[in-house]
Write a structure and sequence with these properties.
With 217 residues, the protein is of the alpha+beta class. The chain has helices at residues 45-49, 58-64, 76-89, 113-122, 150-156, 197-216; strands spanning 11-12, 15-23, 29-35, 40-44, 69-70, 73-74, 130-133, 145-148, 169-172, 177-184, 187-194. The protein contains six helices and eleven strands. The N and C termini lie far apart (53 Å).
Length: 217
C-alpha cells in the first residue's frame, strides 16, 4: 500500500513517525508523529514527503515570530498567507477540496511568511487587494500570482473553464469576447478583448514578442 513508503522511526524535519493513523476523507494516508518538542501531531504522508509539514507547529511559530504582528494583532497580509496555506494543506479546511484536494500547492519558498511578505510588498500589495493565481490549474508562487481587487476576481471567474488551445487567449462568457493577455513577472503586461479569435491570437503573439524582446535587452 502507498502508506508503506513511510515507516515507523523515519524523520521529517522535527517529526519522527510513530505509526500509521488511517486515512483522511481524501484517501491520503495519515501518520502519528512525535515532534522534537515532545508534542504529537497527525500528519498526511504527502505533506511529510513534500516537506510541507516539518513540526507540530513549533517551527512555524519560531520562524514567523516577530514579523506577523501589527498594532497587537496579526497583520492582514499574514492572514492572507495563512489562509492560502490552509486551503492547500489542511484537509479540514472548508475550501480544501477546490485547492489542495485537486493538487493546488504552495511553492516551497512561500512555506515561510517572510519570503511571501517580501514578494507581496514588492509586487503591489495593498490592503484592498486579494491574491489571485494567474493560471487556475497551477499553484501559488511568485510566477503565478498577482494582486487583484475583489471586482477583478469576480470578472475573472466569468471566464469559461474550457481552453482556447492558444496560450494567452481565453473566452469570456460575460463579455462574449476573446480575452488576449500576456503575463510578465507575475503581472498582466497586456490585456485586450476581441470579437475575432484569430485577431486575438495575432495580438498575443505580437505583444509577447515586444514584451519579451524588451526583457532580453
Amino acid at each position: 500500500m502507498r502508506h508503506r513508503q513511510i515507516d515507523q522511526g523515519m524523520k521529517f524535519g522535527r517529526l519522527t513517525v510513530v505509526k500509521h493513523a488511517g486515512s483522511d476523507k481524501h484517501r491520503r494516508a495519515l501518520w502519528r508523529c512525535r515532534c522534537d518538542c515532545g508534542r504529537e501531531a497527525i500528519v498526511a504522508g504527502a505533506n511529510l514527503k513534500g516537506g510541507y509539514t516539518k513540526s507540530c507547529g513549533c517551527l512555524f511559530r519560531e520562524i514567523n515570530s516577530g514579523i506577523t504582528i501589527e498594532n497587537g494583532r496579526s497583520s492582514r497580509l499574514y492572514k492572507v498567507w495563512a489562509s492560502m496555506k490552509q486551503r492547500c494543506l489542511n484537509p479540514r479546511n472548508k475550501d480544501y477540496g477546490r485547492y489542495g484536494g485537486r493538487g493546488i500547492k504552495v511553492c516551497p519558498e512561500w512555506m515561510e511568511f517572510k519570503p511571501f511578505k517580501e514578494w507581496a510588498l514588492s509586487h503591489g500589495y495593498a490592503s484592498c487587494l486579494t491574491i489571485e493565481r494567474i493560471e487556475n490549474d497551477n499553484g501559488y508562487g511568485p510566477e503565478n500570482c498577482e494582486w487583484k481587487t475583489v471586482q477583478d476576481q469576480a470578472v475573472n471567474r466569468d471566464f469559461n473553464s474550457s481552453r482556447s488551445g492558444t496560450r494567452g487567449v481565453s473566452w469570456h462568457k460575460l463579455l462574449c469576447r476573446w480575452h488576449a493577455r500576456v503575463i510578465h513577472k507575475g503581472k498582466a503586461a497586456y490585456s485586450e478583448y476581441f470579437e475575432d479569435f484569430e485577431e486575438a491570437v495575432r495580438a498575443v503573439e505580437k505583444q509577447r514578442s515586444i514584451i519579451f524582446n524588451k526583457k532580453e535587452e
